[in-house]
Please model this.
Amino acid sequence: MKNLLVNLVDKNKKYTEEGFLASYIPALLKANKDDLGIYVVDIKNNEEYWAGECDVKFTIQSISKVVGLIIALSDNGRDAVFKKVNVEPTGMGFNSIVNLEIRDEKPYNPMINAGAIVTTSLIYGETEERKLERILNFIRRATNNEDINVNQEIYESEKETGDRNRSLAYFMKSNGILEGNVEEVLDLYFKQCSIEVTAKDLARFGAVIANDGITPWGNEVLMSREVCRIVKTIMVTCGMYDASGEFAVQVGIPAKSGVGGGILATVPRRYGIGIYGPALDQKGNSIGGIHVLKNLSEELELSIF
Ligand code: DON
Model:
């Protein structure tokens, strides 16, 4: 496995030249565009394998949408959550606003920005600090890494430049989808997007999802089987944004990308996979990462279909 991963990173590194770093959050431009790494956790024997840049920290960005969905579902139950957000792919960019007005009042799914702002607003907690602590604690347990924290510089950069998210949130407030204090919800959303992880952390999180919501290393239940099933399903249909269909055909495993360059992927009952490659394609997914996953899926026959 180790050799296979090294070969796949070497072979696909060239694609990073064709990608671009996310620039709409200025602090993300500090990443090294050439970086590419993959980390795999085999849940059957808890063995870990990696190649490339797997200890480089980057922000979780949209992969936090998976965490927000898990906590919102666990706190509220599926009926309450899906009363506020649909589960249909959009075919639009991740921060598109158009569907909110012309198609349906509810956001299309929890993996686009509008939907994630809603799931974040549904997270329980007496104070905003408590809600963030619950998100951080979840990620720390799911990655087996106590050091997980918010990157303050990226959080501030997001907050300063987050007008598109602000407009999505205020629009949803105006039609009653989003309740409560919009600025507080957005602040929590910006913070959750700015949590720092590595490819290794993502692979461990993927292993928990592959293992039906239970940590393979300590048998701790982090979510119900039902929540895990729903989350995996929505990752397949919506996790790679408007490239989800193509990704399902080419790779065929539940996955979620972020503009920080991470991809969280999970092969049910087999592997958790974490990718880091900050050079993105036109749709905002790690360009080298997608190629590595495609090759890995072909080599090991990972497609669930
Ligand atoms: O809200 C945003 O736009 C970012 N914090 C997250 C977007 C993102 O990661 C989309 N991913 N491909």
